[in-house]
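S1.2 Input.
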Amino acid sequence: MSLTVDIERRLGAFRLKIAFDAGEGVTALFGRSGAGKTSVVNAIAGVLRPDRGRIVIGDQAVFDGARGINVPTSKRRVGYVFQEGRLFPHLSVRQNLRYGGLFSAEARRPDHFEHVIDLLGLRELLDRRPGNLSGGEKQRVAIGRALLCNPRLLLLDEPLASLDAHRRNEILQYIELMRDEVRVPIIYVSHAVEEVVRVADAVVLMSAGEVVKVGTTDEVMGRPDLRPAAGTFEGGAVIDAKVVEQDLRHDLATLAFEGGTLTVANVDALVGEPVRVRIRARDVSIALRRPQEISIQNILKGTIREIGSERGGAVDVAIRVGDTLLRSRVTQRAVESLGLAPGRVVYALVKAVSLARTDSGPG
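S1.3 Output.
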C-alpha cells in the first residue's frame, strides 16, 4: 500500500502546497507549529478539501481536483487518531472498539479483534469506561478503534501531545509494535524531535505550508542546514544499532552499529534487541590523536567529510565513521587551530551519558 499527496489549498492568508509519497512504515510530518501538518492529514482524511491536486491511496484516487473526484471520508478507509482519544464516554472499551468494526466486515472477524487487543495490550481494559482510563490508555483504545476499521492508511495527529513523559513512552512502545506488524502506511504528525527520531522511517519536513525536505530519518534529522525550518531542533546523527552487551553493575550497554560500537548509559533493552540512538552535534568533540586516560567512553576513528559554514562562531564538521556520518559542532577557532579539513583522519569523542537513546531500531 502507498500514499501519494500533491495538493494545494488556500486557508486565509496561509497557502498549503505540499507533495510527497509514503509507503509502509511510519512517515512523519515534522516541523514547527503552524507549518500546516494537521491541514495535510485533514485533507488525506477528507475533512479538508484541497483547491487542486491529487491524493491517491493504493491505486485509488480519493481526491482529484481535475477529474472532480472527492471520495467521502467514510469511504476512504482511513483510520484517524487525534491528540485526544475522542472515545464515546457512555460506552465501554469493548464497545468503543467494536464501533470500529461497523465500517469493515474484515474488522468484525474475531481473530482480527483479538489480534488488535493483544497488540495494544487492551484485554484488561475491555469492561472499563473511558472516564476510568489514563490518558495513555485512552490513546491505546483510540488507536485500536482506528485499526479495527481495517484501514488502508493510519493517520496519527500528535497523539502524544496531551500526555506526560511516562505515558508518551508507553504509547511510543505500542506505536513501534504497530509499525512493525501493521502493513499500511502510517502518517505521524509531530513537532517533537524525540518522537520522530524514535518511530519514523521517513520524514517530511514542513515549513510555512510547504515541503522543505523529504528523506529517511537520518537524512532529514541530521542536516544542520535545516534547523531554521525545524525550529529548536539541532543537527546530529541518528544511528540504528543492536545491543550486544549489558553491564548491569554500571548500568551501561554496548551497542554495535556499522561504524563500530558505542557505550550508552541507561538502556533498558535485552542483548540482541535493536535500538536507535541520536548523537547531537554539540555532544561530539574532535581529537587529532587517540586520547589516553580519559573518562569519555566512546572514541571513534573517522575521516572528515566536510566542514560547514560558520554560524555565530560555530562550525558543523561531518565525520565519516564506517558507513555512519557523525556531526560535531566546534568553534571556528578550533577548526583553524587543529587544521581540520576534508580527508583528515580524526577521533570523534562522545560521552556515554550524553547519548540520547530513543528505544527503537527500524521496523
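S1.4 Remarks. The mean pLDDT is 86.
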